[in-house]
Write a structure and sequence with these properties.
DNA polymerase, domain 1, elongated
Length: 172
């Protein structure tokens, strides 16, 4: 595997132009790649590894890393269309890097888009609980719409915290 440089990314973007992609599409590809790279650098720093540019990221690029990025976007409630566009951009980049022998394999091959409206069982349960809570506040309590919004936001934050921790406090 060669090291991927900023120049390699520029070659990819030039290749898109050669394929007749619009300037808006190329801008989106660049934005999607930059978002991934920024996430990747922060992710590695949080793990104690120092990476400051594309070349230093190269050894960490693999299928699991891309899947982790996908999970990050889902968990942070990025719009499904945005997630899928970013994944498509990364699939195209990964294929280009593999074709140009900058990567030893196409790590995005087989990584599926996020289904619109598809939720994990835990998220379905969370959504149902939060929705019932919201409805009960509206129906049974004399509270403002801002209070309902704030309470629902707090409950979602708590449920996200539980999901990260993997258990309820004190066996609740």
């Amino acid at each position: 595997m060669q090291l991927i440089s900023d120049n390699t990314i520029k070659k990819f973007l030039n290749n898109l132009q050669d394929q007749g992609k619009s300037l808006v599409s190329i801008k989106n590809y660049k934005s999607d790649i930059n978002h991934f790279l920024a996430w990747a650098i922060l992710k590695l720093k949080s793990l104690g590894s120092y990476a400051d540019n594309v070349i230093e990221l190269t050894p960490f690029i693999n299928r699991d890393f891309f899947n982790e990025y996908k999970s990050y976007m889902v968990e942070n409630n990025i719009k499904v269309k945005t997630i899928n566009r970013r994944l498509s951009s990364l699939r195209n980049l990964s294929n280009f890097l593999y074709s140009s022998q900058a990567l030893d394999r196409d790590y995005m091959q087989g990584i599926q888009n996020v289904g619109i409206g598809t939720l994990t069982p835990m998220r379905v349960k969370d959504r149902d609980i939060v929705e019932r809570f919201r409805e009960s506040l509206i129906k049974d309590e004399n509270v403002s719409s801002n209070t309902v919004k704030n309470y629902v936001s707090d409950v979602r934050g708590f449920l996200a915290w539980i999901e990260k921790k993997g258990e309820l406090p004190n066996g609740i």
